[in-house]
Amino acid sequence: MKARIVVSAVCVFDPAGRLLTVRKRGTGMFMHPGGKPEAGETAVQAAARELAEEVGIVIHPRDLELMGVWIADAANEAATDIEATVFRAPGTWQAHPSAEIAEIRWLDLAALDRGAALPPDLAPLLTDHILPELGAQPDA
Question: Is residue 97 domain-resident?
Fold first, then answer.
């Protein structure tokens, strides 16, 4: 049986409709901003805190919109699943990565719909659950 990590994550879009992905230091995969809840924190509180800590986006937890809860292979930990509660930050945003983030990449969902190839370094949560939920149809 695989180990399981509980996390919260947030879908963030820029004015061009691109989805924010981040690569944390010491890792190779791009994923949503997010992370593990701290003791006593709800999923939505963790999502808002992680968003502020990782990319400087400050939003009140009540303003985040629940998209769903999914289980996927962990991107950076072998033999581990994540149980991810995923939210959407309404509106459009600019990201200002913290020292914890090695790189950001805005994923052009419209280009995926036009047949662009899916980058090979995206976390399974994104490719298996979030992109289909958002209606993106990548040419995998």
Answer: yes
Instruction: Evaluate whether residue 37 is within a structural domain.
Output: yes
Q: Which residue has the tokens 């809840």?
A: 37
CA distance 52 to 95: 10
What is the CATH classification number for the domain harbouring 49? 3.90.79.10
CA dihedral 4, 139, 65, 80 (to 10 degrees): 10
pLDDT at 136 over 80: no
- What is the C-alpha separation between 56 and 66, in angstroms, rounded? 20
| Phi, psi angles (nearest 5°) of residue 64 | -75, 140
Residue 90: inside a domain: yes
Residue 18 φ then ψ, to 5°: -85, 145
pLDDT for the residue 140: 45
What CA–CA distance (Å, rounded) separates 140 from 97? 28
For 16-65, the pLDDT digits (tens) are 999 999 999 999 999 999 999 999 999 999 999 999 999 999 999 999 99
